[in-house]
Amino acid sequence: MRALRLEAPGQARIVEQALPADTAEEVVLHVLAAAICRTDARMWQSGHRDLVLPRVLGHELCVRGEDGRRYAVWPGASCGRCQACRSGAENLCRAVAVLGFHRDGGIAQRVRVPRSSLVPVPGEVPDAVVCLAEPLGCGVNALNQAGVEAGERVLIHGGGPVGLLLALAARARGAQPLVVEVDAEKAALSSRFQSLSGVVVTREEPGYGWDVAINATSSSHALCAGLQRLRSGGRYVVFSGLRQEAGRNDLSRLNEVHYRQLHLVGAFGCTHASVTEAVDLLAGYRKAAGALIEAVISLEESPDALRRVGQGGVLRFVVRPEGAGYQA
Ligand SMILES: [Zn+2]
Ligand SMILES: [Zn+2]
C-alpha cells in the first residue's frame, strides 16, 4: 500500500509499504479520507514530544470496515486497565500509543486500529467532514474539562480550524463563544464558516467578564490576554501547548489566578466519548464544518500540502488515499 511517511524532520514522501494485518484486537481498514493538521505540519518542521520516526502521519480519519460501514477513529490505543482508562480518560493513559505519533497513522491506503477505537458515523456526514470528528472531539473534551454550560460566555483565542470547531461545540451546547484572531488574513479565511455556523470571529480583544477562556493557539500572549479578561472566579482551559518564545514567557501574569481566584484546567487531546459526541455534532453542523475544508487532494499531493499547512494561511486539506472524487 502507499502511505505518506515522515522519514526525518523536513523529509516526507510517499512510500510503498507492506499492508498491515488484523490481530485479535485490531482491525485493518480502508482509509476513505485523512486530514492534515497543524500538528502534522509542526512534526514535519521540527518533530514532536511523542513522535517516533520514521512514521506514517495521520490521526484525523474517516475509514471503512470490511462490514462496509464508515467510522471516525479515536486515534489512540490505550491499555484499558489503568485508573485513567477505567475512568474514561484514556487520553491520559501512560501507555497510550497515538496514531501518527507513536504508531503508524492513516494518511495511507490502509490503517490498523483497535476495534474499540472505532466510532460509527451516520450516512449524511461526508467523508471529509468525518475527519473533523477528531479535532472537534478535542474541543468537546476542553469544554467538558471546564464544565461549560448553556448561557456561559466563552472566549477563545486562535481562529484556526481547531479554535473554530471549539466555538462550534460551545454554540451547540448553548454557550456564547467569541473567537479572537489577530491575524487579518487568518480571520478572513473563516468568513464562510462564520456565516454558516453563526460563530463570530473578531480581530479586537473584547472587554472583561468572560466565564471561560481557552487558548487555541500556542502563543503565551494569547494565554495572558484570556486570563486578564476572565471574570473573577472564571475558568481558564490550557488547550493548546505553548511554544517556546524567547523572553516572552512572563509568568507574573499567573498572578491573575491568585488575585481573582481563577480556576486553571488542562485539556489534552480527546477521548472515545468526546469523539462520539463530536460525530453527533457533525451530523447537525456538517455544512458549517465542511467550510473548514480547504481542498480534497490525492495522496501524491500530500507532501506539498504538508508544507503549505506549515506556512499557514490555509484551512484543512483532506487526503483521499484511494483517489476517489469528493463526496459532497
Ligand atoms: Zn490534528
Ligand atoms: Zn490505560
List keywords for this structure.
18 strands, binds zinc ion, alpha/beta, globular, 328 residues, 30% helix, 6-stranded parallel sheet, Rossmann fold, Quinone Oxidoreductase, Chain A, domain 1, 7-stranded mixed sheet, 2 domains, 12 helices
Structure description:
The protein is an alpha/beta fold and 328 residues long. 30% of the residues lie in helices and 27% in strands. The chain folds into two domains: 2-132 and 292-320, Medium-chain alcohol dehydrogenases, catalytic domain (Quinone Oxidoreductase, Chain A, domain 1, Alpha-Beta Complex); 135-266, Rossmann fold, CATH 3.40.50. It has helices at residues 38-46, 83-86, 127-130, 133-146, 161-172, 184-189, 191-197, 220-229, 255-259, 272-284, 286-290, 302-311; strands spanning 2-8, 11-16, 26-36, 55-56, 60-64, 70-73, 76-77, 97-98, 110-114, 118-120, 153-157, 176-180, 201-202, 210-215, 230-238, 263-266, 293-298, 316-320. The strands form four sheets. Strands 3, 5, 6, 9, 10, 17 and 18 form a seven-stranded mixed beta sheet that branches. Strands 13-12-11-14-15-16 form a six-stranded parallel beta sheet, sandwiched between helices. Helix 1 packs across helix 12, helix 4 crosses helix 5 and helix 4 crosses helix 10. The model has no long low-confidence stretch (mean pLDDT 94). Residues 37, 39, 59-60, 135 line the site of one zinc ion.
